[in-house]
Design brief:
Length: 149
């Protein structure tokens, strides 16, 4: 077992890592390119490293944080995940974005019954901008407001 393999297993024991992210971390530890490739192949062969599991893990975390599909897709592209894998995962999740957007909006803006949410035009624009900044699509945001008002 090489030192690169031991370091890779140690990193993967903490949390899921994408292939590119794992390579970068191992390079920072001054391992040779060949040792890194060997360690990565062994980790993948043993099922310790999987980009699919990494995507699912990152997606769950970002949804819990209140992020939408545009933001999550950008985050995945930044860590060099294959576009096909991203598209497959988003295809499975496409029916849930409305519910995620609604939950984020309700948590942020719907107050108790004695203090109803502000439905003025300016307030709605601010709320829509908030959801856009979280990475939800305009169509999804429109559906949230159509149902809520």
């Amino acid at each position: 077992m090489s030192k690169a393999y031991v370091d890779a297993v140690r990193l993967l024991a903490r949390r899921e890592h994408g292939e590119h992210e794992l390579v970068l971390k191992l390079e920072r530890k001054a391992h040779s390119t060949q040792d890194i490739q060997d360690a990565l192949l062994e980790c993948q062969r043993l099922g310790l490293q999987s980009d699919a599991r990494f995507v699912e893990s990152l997606m769950r975390a970002r949804v819990r944080q209140g992020h939408g599909p545009l933001r999550i897709r950008r985050d995945l592209e930044q860590v060099m995940i294959a576009r096909e894998l991203i598209d497959d995962i988003f295809l499975q999740e496409q029916d849930h974005w409305f519910l995620h957007a609604k939950a984020v909006w309700v948590k942020k803006y719907q107050l108790q019954d004695e203090h109803p949410a502000d439905h003025s035009f300016a307030a709605q624009q601010k709320q829509k901008q908030f959801l856009l900044s979280r990475g939800f699509t305009f169509d999804t945001i429109q559906m949230v407001f159509k149902e809520a008002l």
